[in-house]
Specification:
87 residues, mainly alpha
């Protein structure tokens, strides 16, 4: 994931976790626009995997993704999607 200004990360994560399809879609698209690796456009595989895990209908997948985010107690600005993909 490309480095981005950390300010929007917390609201984007909140949107993805909201359960509201409109907020989830907006947050997912915003994350792709602001954080995609150069050359991947809107198809950055790390971001796609991350957002699909948080939006999953499978409770185990969604729960694991949320637990991973919760493990960053200090702030969601330090999230590394590369680490998420590897875990």
């Amino acid at each position: 994931m490309n480095r981005t200004n950390p300010e929007p990360m917390s609201p984007l994560i909140s949107g993805l976790r909201s359960g509201n399809p409109c907020k989830q879609r907006a947050a997912s698209e915003a994350l792709r626009y602001c954080c995609a690796e150069p050359g991947t456009g809107l198809g950055d595989p790390e971001i796609i995997l991350f957002t699909e895990a948080l939006e999953s209908q499978d409770e185990k997948i969604r729960s694991a993704a949320n637990q991973w985010i919760d493990s960053f107690k200090e702030t969601t600005t330090s999230l590394s999607l590369e680490a998420f993909v590897k875990s």
